[in-house]
Amino acid sequence: MAETKSRIWTELDFEKNGKQTGYLHLPHSVTRSAYGTIAIPCAIIRNGAGPSTLLMAGNHGDEYEGQIALCRIMREIEAGDIKGRIVIVPAINLPAAMAGARVSPIDDLNLNRCFPGNPNGRPTEQIAYYIETVLAPMCDAWVDLHSGGGSLDYMPYAQVIMSRDAKINNRALAALEAFGSPVSVIQAFSDEKTMANSAAVRNKKIYFGTEAGGTGSVNVDGVRLAYEGTLRVLAYFGHLSRNNKRISVPPPPKKTRWVEIASRDYYVYAPQAGLFEPKVKLGDAVKKGQLYGLVHFVDDPMRQPTEVRFKASGLLMCKRHPGRCERGDCLGHLVSDTKR
After folding, report:
1. Is this model's pTM higher than 0.85 or not?
2. Max alpha carbon distance in the chain (Å)?
3. Were both Cys, which of 113, 124, 126, 216 would link to 150 (CB 3.0–4.6 Å)?
4. E strands within 36-76?
């Protein structure tokens, strides 16, 4: 059976030289607009033959650092600055980005749990399908900029999620090293088939990204990491020259700390609903069995709080931001040192 074509269309020409800015149009018929579209901003910058790279942010709408970095890059880079093709989509999940929400307010779906998508499905599923069948196949590499959104606070870092393809892993790790994050994370293989990294694996593309901050605010260090790291990796891929007079490629950090998320035990989940009081700070080194915090029950003050302890040793790289939690909420996760 022939592959169904995406319903998303664009006036942009992916094969044309020069710099084009416009929209990816997702048909969306509502009472206010019978023949309307959701117009997702996109730039295509091309200068002859060469590598092709997809730069994407706003997979989750409340993750702002990558959106800001790619808007700046979209404004700054001209066709004469590069070789090959760069496709920039700074807010791929535009409805969620405009709402400042993790999931789309239109269909309540999480884009990063919708791959490979559905060409005739709900809006978020159609976006996922377009990425998987149109954007990812035309590019050699895919940089997907994330952060912690409203519920999590991250020490900014870049990461690779390992696949079962050793060749792709090695290429992705080399690109991640070129990205130049002071802390670089290697995440153990994930069998999750509905996330963007799995879409990249199915297309046999390099894929990596960031966790650049969070708390529903804008992390200054996270924006800098997303912006400078993206320029460094564009130079690594051969798009930008380090001698470019208009676009200055920042030097890499003097040292990179390589860490890993090795197992599910690195994650901590709320055992009950309540008010979580952490006893350690983001960036602290902790030991297996150490007290992470207490869940308090303010509607039953005489009830003893429930202890939450770490199941592994490591560095607290991610911490829940809101004080209130429900049973099963992620309260944070660890990383531990590893070799590149």
Report:
1. yes
2. 71
3. 216
4. 37-47, 52-57
